[in-house]
Amino acid sequence: MKGGLKGAIEKVEKFSPDQGTIGKVVNYLESLVPKYSLVGDSVFFGNDQFPWSYELEANWQVIRQELDQVLPYADALPNFQDISPRQGNIADDDRWKTFFFCAFGYKSEKNCQRCPETAKLLGKIPGLKVAFFSILAPGKHIPEHRGKHKGIIRYHLGLKVPQPRENCRIRVADQIAYWEEGKSLIFDDTFPHEVWNDTDDYRVVLFLDIERPLRFPLSTVNRTINTLVGLSPIVQLAKGNHESWEQQFEAMLK
């Protein structure tokens, strides 16, 4: 791709929401992130780099109380691949359940109404792109994979973390981390990572994707790319799948 960052911006502005085209530009922009990132370029990040994380931690028990109202319906919640079929390569069973609040411009009004305090807290987070309860059943292993866009930062808030600690863990690059209830885990998901829940209970985190803080003009490019991702066929399919599940879930509750 010629023309440097200016050329990239011009190309982004002309894009239709075609996933292949977006992917080509995303790949080019990856190399620019270390230079423009306001939070550096590392595997893990600290709370100080994302100050809003402190309010989530301070209110984690409020979020947990609303989660506890959802968990009795765990079997009826959608599997990750039921919402986003592209996840089928890492989720092909019924042991990774989801409870979505929002994703790239789509908002689940019903789920937000079921967890109003969580929804209020999410509404305060700058650059929020994706939010859901990520629920791993006992024995679930998510094989190694990596995110495709370095313009996104992954965030987990531990809500329900079974013991023993060493049996419930995540590896990112060559580093092992453990969730703690009420604590944040923030990382760059473009590094290869995998997850284990080798316990006899559910592991649940509040799973967020956040726009990486970047200096201008890459911040504008990144925001445009994320908007286009929201218009892409992949996200539109996931939106339709989630709306279908909501209708079925509402009917079940009546």
From TrEMBL:
The keyword Oxidoreductase applies. It comes from Leptolyngbya sp. NK1-12. It comes from the Bacteria. GO terms for molecular function: dioxygenase activity. One of its GO terms (cellular component) is membrane. Belongs to the aspartyl/asparaginyl beta-hydroxylase family. Residues 57-213 form the Aspartyl/asparaginy/proline hydroxylase domain. InterPro entries: Asp/Arg/Pro-Hydrxlase (IPR007803), Asp/Asn_beta-hydroxylase (IPR051821), IPNS-like_sf (IPR027443). Keywords: Dioxygenase, Oxidoreductase. Gene3D superfamilies: B-lactam Antibiotic, Isopenicillin N Synthase, Chain (2.60.120.330). This is Aspartyl/asparaginyl beta-hydroxylase domain-containing protein.
